[in-house]
């Protein structure tokens, strides 16, 4: 772990959602008003001069971080949702998780050429969710300039996996070795 002043509020839950997985529970951090504000402020401060027009956040915990970041940056918020949750035509992207597979969808008109996109999520593990969001944004002609995460499971090497595929700014507040 690193030096983010509020990381002690993240709780480790062993064997959840399945044996061998250590779930990182961020809800105590989000419940602490100073901690939650620090998360949003740190991400916004890092990307405040990047010209962000849209912030994409993945369902569901990513929404909790991405939406206030978008608000503070003066950008729009775009939800990347699980199948069947969006009411209009969507683009879909499948991806691998550290313990399975999943899929994300974005409305086909959510992003356009000229949009400068920041992807924000609570946690990055293997990079699958983040890369799926990037592919969706790029399919619509948007330019992904950065990714921000509250927590990075550094022992799974997501930074290397993502930056091997994308030339972006990769930022995380807490690194778990």
Textual characterization of the structure:
The chain is of the alpha/beta class. It has a single domain (7-176), classed as 3-Layer(aba) Sandwich (Rossmann fold), CATH 3.40.50. Helix content is 30%, strand content 35%. The chain contains five helices and nine strands, in the order ββααβαββββαβαβ. It has a five-stranded parallel beta sheet with strand order 4-3-7-8-9, with helices on both faces. A two-stranded antiparallel ribbon has the order 1-2. It has a two-stranded antiparallel ribbon with strand order 5-6. The radius of gyration is 15 Å and the shape is globular. The mean pLDDT is 94.
User: Radius of gyration, Cα only, in angstroms?
Assistant: 15 Å
Strand content: 35-45%
How far apart are the first and last residues' alpha carbons, in Å?
6 Å
Strand order of the largest sheet: 4-3-7-8-9
Report the biggest beta sheet as strand number plus sense, adding barrel if it closes: 5 strands, parallel
- For this structure, the CATH topology is Rossmann fold
The chain-level structural class is alpha/beta
Mean pLDDT: 94
- Segments where pLDDT lies below 50 for 5+ residues? none
How many domain modules? 1
Task: Find the count of extended strands (DSSP E, 2+ residues).
Answer: 9
Could you say what the CATH architecture is?
A: 3-Layer(aba) Sandwich
């Amino acid at each position: 772990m690193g030096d983010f002043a509020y990381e002690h509020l993240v709780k480790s839950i062993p064997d959840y959602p399945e044996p061998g997985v250590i779930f990182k529970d961020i809800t105590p951090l989000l419940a602490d008003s100073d901690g939650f504000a620090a998360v949003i402020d740190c991400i916004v401060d890092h990307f405040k001069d990047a010209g962000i027009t849209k912030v994409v956040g993945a369902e569901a915990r990513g929404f909790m971080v991405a939406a206030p970041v978008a608000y503070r940056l003066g950008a729009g918020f775009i939800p990347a949702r699980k199948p069947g949750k969006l009411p209009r035509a969507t683009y879909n992207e499948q991806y691998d998780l550290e313990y399975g597979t999943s899929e994300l969808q974005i409305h086909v008109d959510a992003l356009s050429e000229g949009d400068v996109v920041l992807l924000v999520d609570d946690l990055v593990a293997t990079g699958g969710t983040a890369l799926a969001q990037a592919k969706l944004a790029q399919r619509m002609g948007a330019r992904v300039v950065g990714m921000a995460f509250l927590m990075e499971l550094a022992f799974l090497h997501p930074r290397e996996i993502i930056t091997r595929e994308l030339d972006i700014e990769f930022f995380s507040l807490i690194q778990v070795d």
